[in-house]
Amino acid sequence: AISDIKTQHYIEVNNAFCSLLEFSPEEVIGESALSLGIIDDKIRQDIISNYDENRHLYNYETTLFTKYGKEKHVVLTIESISVCDRYLRISFINDITELKKSNLRILKINEELVKSKNVIEEVLREKEIIISELNKAKNELEKTNNEKDKLFSIISHDLKSPFQGLLGLSEVLATNSDEIPPD
Fold this sequence. Notes:
The mean pLDDT is 92. 56% of the residues lie in helices and 21% in strands. By secondary structure, the chain is an alpha+beta fold. Strands 2-1-5-4-3 form a 5-stranded antiparallel β-sheet. It contains 5 helices and 5 strands, in the order E-E-H-H-H-H-E-E-E-H. A hairpin with a 5-residue loop joins strand 1 and strand 2. The chain is rod-shaped and about 150 Å long.
């Protein structure tokens, strides 16, 4: 878009400008961005405060409004030039609305991923605690099992001698039962 610096009125706009902001060229020519509602006073002041010393603005990210009030996120570049003693402003607008929306979706997805990561890390910490407790229980069971085996080994050894005597006596009784009196 080309506008007169003194009046702030547009003197020429291309089809891309009109398509982006949903105006016809006839609606725009002779009007200012402020009167059309493309910018508000705050945005205008922000733009002016970001001009360089030559009243140029390069790759400034801002918001513009369409004829119907929809927000358009744009990157704005403004060149101030002089043509035949007339001071003009050439504005280049790059629409980044979809890029911003995609960026917001990515940020939301990233937040969800961070939350999921935190949940997974918490589950892993709990799993490690459970594994540690299971290992302790396993070690205690192995120790108890070893003690049981040792106890049975001792009992078996201690009972072996008396049972040998009992078996020997039983064999004597069985083989010599005719010779031993019943009483």
